[in-house]
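#onboarding

Welcome to the new folks! Below is a worked example of what a typical request in this channel looks like: someone posts a single protein sequence, and someone else replies with the predicted structure as tokens. Don't worry about understanding the tokens yet, we'll cover that in week two.

Example request:
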Amino acid sequence: MAVVWGWFPWRRTVVRRRVVVNLADKAFAGVLWAKRGPLLVLRDVTLMQHGAADTPMDGEVIVERSRVEFIQATGG
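Example response:
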């Protein structure tokens, strides 16, 4: 059995683009500003929760990659 190590393009994460980061219980819409190890740094963020109004967030929002269900890169 061979083990393959290397670069996997489907594991890349878009940076400096507008995204929606989906967690199990909420989502953040904003600009994915940077990846720092296991963390994602978002700017210009809006918090979206089921049953609640969208809430603009001040400053940067830091999200642990292990909590991310999936990331949607929005058009434009």
